[in-house]
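Attaching the record inline, Q. Sequence:
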Amino acid sequence: MEGENSIAIKGQRTINEIASEYKVHPTQIMNWKKRALEQLPEIFSDKRQNKAQSDEELKSKLYEQIGKLQVELEWLKKKSGLIS
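Structure, as predicted:
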């Protein structure tokens, strides 16, 4: 339904014309248009990229911490005599 949003957003045809052509209720077209317009700023912003970068940094830190904990656990096992 991507084409309908584009047509509706540009105002090339009326909501009723679009709804009739694609056999959906005009309210649905209006809802899609509203949602598309609300999301446009986010789509063209750096938020998505920043979030992905932030997620990768968090993963990296967590993997580093897991590695340190595994080394400590092995050291403690050897010190306690659980591993020979």
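Helices lie at 2-10, 15-22, 26-43, 47-80. Residues 47-80 form the longest helix (34 residues).

More tomorrow.
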